[in-house]
Every structure is written in C-alpha cells, then in structure tokens.
Amino acid sequence: MSTPFVRLPVLVLALVAAAACTGPEEDRRASIDDESQLLEVVNENRRLEAELAESERRLVEDCLEEQGFPVHDQVELATRWHVAEQEALVEDYPFASFLPDPEAAAEWGYGQWAYSGEGWASGAGDAFNEATGADQPWLDLDNTAFDDLALEEKRAWYAAFGGEEYAASIGAFSSGAMADDDSTEGGDDGAIVIDPELQEAVAPGGCLLEMVEAVHGEAEAVPATGGAVGTVWTWGPRSPQEAADWEALREAYREAVIEPEAAFLECVAAGGWGDWEFDRTGGLPVAAYFNQIYYPDSEIITVQDGLVVEPGSVPEPPDDLPSDLESQQAYEIDMALGFIDCAETTGYREAAEAAYHRVHLDLFLTMDEELYAYQDDLRGVIAAAQDVLGG
C-alpha cells in the first residue's frame, strides 16, 4: 500500500492530546480520521483473505479435476470463497431485517410475498433478488453447465468436493430426492421445516479436506460466533473480528437503546401492527411473522441469528386479512412502510444506528495489535498455499 499504517494506540493518544486545543469541528474530523485508519487496516486484511481464498479455491478445483470433475458448481465455490472489502466498520445493523430501504419497501415490502408459492411461480422471487441482491455477485454467475448435470452427477461432485457426509447434508440429495428427481423437500403433510440440527456443521472431507491439510494442517470444530449457535469448522488464521466478544457487544448495544426500542414498539402497536418484542440481538422476526400468512397450513421452523424463533414470540396476523396474494402483498408493503415511519418519528433508527456504530468502534479499537498480527499470519499462509500450488 502507498501509505504506511499508523499504529492505532499512537493515533489515539495523539487525538486525546490534541482534543484540549481543538474546537468541535476539529474533534469531529479527528474522529473520522481515526475510523478511516481503522477501516483501512480491516480492508487490508480483507484483501489478504481474498488472496488466500483464491489460492484455496484453485487447489480444490485442481483436486476435483484430477478426479474427473471438470464442471463445477460455481455458486458453491463463489459463496464459500467470496471476500469483499468493507465500505464501513458497520455494514449490517440489527434493524436491517425489519427496516428495509424505503424505496424498496414501497415496491416489495420485505420481499416475503415474492417467496410465497404463488409469488415465486410468477417470477417475483427472481425479480426481487435481482432488484435487491447487488451485494451477491453469485446471482449473476453462469452455472448452466452444472445445472444441466444429472442429479447423481451433482451428488458425486459434492461428495468429491466436501465428502459423503457433506453431500448427504444437502436437501436435494436426501434419500427421497435421490429416489425421485421431481420430489420436493418436506414431509407428506406439507410441512416445510428448517431443521435446527443443521446448525451443527459437517466436518470437511473430500477435496476440501485435502486442501485444508495441505495448507493449514488440520481443521478444528469451534463454537459458532456472531450471534449463531452450534458448531462450525474452521482452519487457518482466525480473524480477531471472529474471535471478538460479540455477546458483550450486543449487551452494550441493547443497554444503550432500551428507551428508543420501547418507543418504537409502542408506535408499531399503536399503528395496528401487533405487539412485538425484540430478540436478544435487537432484531424482530418479520420472516416468521409472514410465514404465518403465506404458509398458513404448514409447519415452519424459522431460525434467526442462530436461534429457533418460538411461535409464541411472534404476533398473529389480523384475522380479517384476505387470503389473496395481492391483498397480502399490499398489507406487507403497508407494514414495512409503517415500521419505517415509526423508526423515524420516534428517533429509534437514528439512536440505534449511532449506538451500534459506537460499540463497534469501541470494540475495534481494542483489537488493533491483533489485526496487524493477523496480517502477518495471513501472509505466511498465502506463501504456503502458493508453494503447494507451485509444487
């Protein structure tokens, strides 16, 4: 990089010393510089992670091709090894799921109706993805060659990629689906269930394990972080962000927004949108709410932030809500706009955004040394991966 990094403790001390002789505008500018420097460090780590991801992917693809699999699932590879730079220290806020962009909300609401059976059949789901999925580059991938493979060929690819257990964990390759290519997920009673046990990740196998052993030595099962529960498998250098105390961050955030949250919920209830309660992360399970509307005869277990949403924690929809999709879509749009209006008029959104940003900045300022050490670790592993590729 053209500009050398400034160690954050030095920068912070300088800012504190300068505060006594600067006015409000200078203080604000110093704070922005501090955060910009921190973001640059984080993004240097992202760039190194992307370089390592590309090497890992190449090793896995080489392994698959040596076993006779020249056609790959580009979506699987892209989603597993997608690394993007951050535009800000905080990119996802707890309210993102229930306070959509106002312009998008006016057309789509929360987009839940587009994923209903009728909505999806009409093409609304694809249109919603296209309209709102700009940050998901895999949606534009040409995966035609893999999609055209027979189900058994796809299953063989997944088994070679991640192992037999991984292939079996994918719904399309369950015993029922393998017996009938036209079968759908779910039981005979029409239940659509997201199994909470799927939170326990499958140990890497196949070419994925071969890459891990060649570059990193071994994989390790660790508790999930960032709000999720269960076990995940990890390998290689562990990001300080991943190892951070996110539970403490969530607690600090929720403590800071007690009054704004209460005012927002009162506004929502007064608007006729039901009696809601925030979950432990500060979110509202709107997806579980609309599942009651679009799948009234199905049992659906919704997992949000790693936890199963209990049916009793979600308000019931109005009894007089019409059953046709057009009316339900209108209701969803009205509700999304109503939530947005309450967030603005009560000051909830502004307060929540400021509090969440503040606790993140405080957290990052405690891990500066770890962030730089992580860069060194990444460079060492990248060199090892390049040696394997060159060998």
UniProtKB/TrEMBL annotation:
Residues 1-19 form the signal peptide. Residues 38-65 form a coiled coil. Keywords: Coiled coil, Signal. This is Uncharacterized protein. The lineage of its organism: Bacteria, Bacillati, Actinomycetota, Actinomycetes, Glycomycetales.
